[in-house]
Write a structure and sequence with these properties.
The protein has 120 residues and is mostly helical. Helices cover 72% and strands 0% of the residues. The protein is built from five helices and no strands.
């Protein structure tokens, strides 16, 4: 894992914490949803010594958080879109450490299918 990927992941965590704080102000009764959404963003940071797992988890969590933001748009989860996009950048920031092609193709397709299934 490169220093650039590490910085992007930290930026995603900061964006998620800010989004959670704004969400808590907007609707305190939804606190568990905002806190859990922000806590998941910290998972890739625990995988610093495993570069392949780090990149894969950044991709999976970024895509999942983006889908969650679209599904939970009514309750303010769109605040997590910047954190999701930063995680996606962190997944592909280093040329030598990127998720596998299979994961990079299937993760967005599954997320789009989940959002479509929710709205249909």
């Amino acid at each position: 894992m490169t220093a650039g990927q590490w910085r992007w992941a930290w930026a995603a965590l900061v964006a998620a914490v800010v989004a959670a704080a704004l969400g808590l102000v907007m609707g305190p009764y939804l606190a568990p949803l905002f806190i859990m959404s922000a806590a998941v963003v910290a998972v890739p940071l625990a995988l610093r010594n495993q570069p392949e797992s780090f990149a894969g988890s950044c991709l999976l969590i970024g895509v999942s958080l983006l889908a969650w933001a679209m599904i939970g748009a009514v309750i303010g989860m769109v605040l997590f879109i910047p954190a999701a996009l930063l995680l996606l950048v962190a997944a592909f920031a280093a040329a030598g450490n990127r998720p596998g092609a299979w994961l990079a193709v299937t993760a967005p397709i599954v997320a789009v299918a989940a959002v479509a299934a929710f709205y249909l």
